[in-house]
Amino acid sequence: MLTEFKNLPDDSRIWVYQSNRKLSDEEVAAITPKIEAFLEQWTAHGTDLEAGYEIKYNRFIVFGLNQVNASASGCSIDASVRFIQSLEQELEVDLLDKMNVTFYNGEFIAHKSLSDFRKMAKARSVSPNTVVFNNLVNTKEEYLENWEVPAKESWHNRFLA
């Protein structure tokens, strides 16, 4: 069951899928009804899941799931991953590679491999104050408060020493 993302409770489970490039407005417009159709029919063991989404900065697809009535099962999570994989193929982007880092480079959002981010940290091209996107957040509350944070406040900190 599709609901507005803003109406999901703060303890809702979150999945963040980052694209390796910025999506065009046309691409976002094309995938929006597909995301809504998927979430409208998303179930776990036959029970409707109350889910919402948002697309941030034309680069991140964020799913939120209210787990009060029903939680995602292995099968429903697999279904969401298959759906995201279908978007990857359609858009010719990478949405599932967790070995990439996205961060602000001035006013722009940069996307680098983890190894390139490490090199940039060693070269001091990124600093502890560089704002990164912590896609490991688990709840809507964490997403709202700790998704865009200075690298020193995220798991990215380990590369800055």
Description:
With 161 residues, the chain is α+β, with helices and mostly antiparallel strands. The chain has 2 domains: 5-91; 100-159, no CATH class. It contains 4 helices and 9 strands, in the order βαββββαββαβαβ. The strands form 4 sheets. The protein has a 3-stranded antiparallel beta sheet, covered by helices on one side. It has a two-stranded antiparallel ribbon with strand order 2-3. It has a two-stranded antiparallel ribbon with strand order 6-7. α1 runs antiparallel to α2. The protein is globular, with a radius of gyration of 16 Å. The termini are far apart.
Task: Name the features.
26% strand; 4 helices; 3-stranded antiparallel beta sheet; 9 strands; ABC transporter ATPase; 161 residues; 2 domains; alpha+beta
Tell me briefly what this model is.
This protein has 161 residues and is of the alpha+beta class. The chain has helices at 25-41, 74-91, 114-122, 140-146; strands spanning 13-18, 43-44, 47-48, 50-56, 60-66, 100-105, 108-113, 131-133, 148-150. It has two domains: 5-91; 100-159, no CATH class.
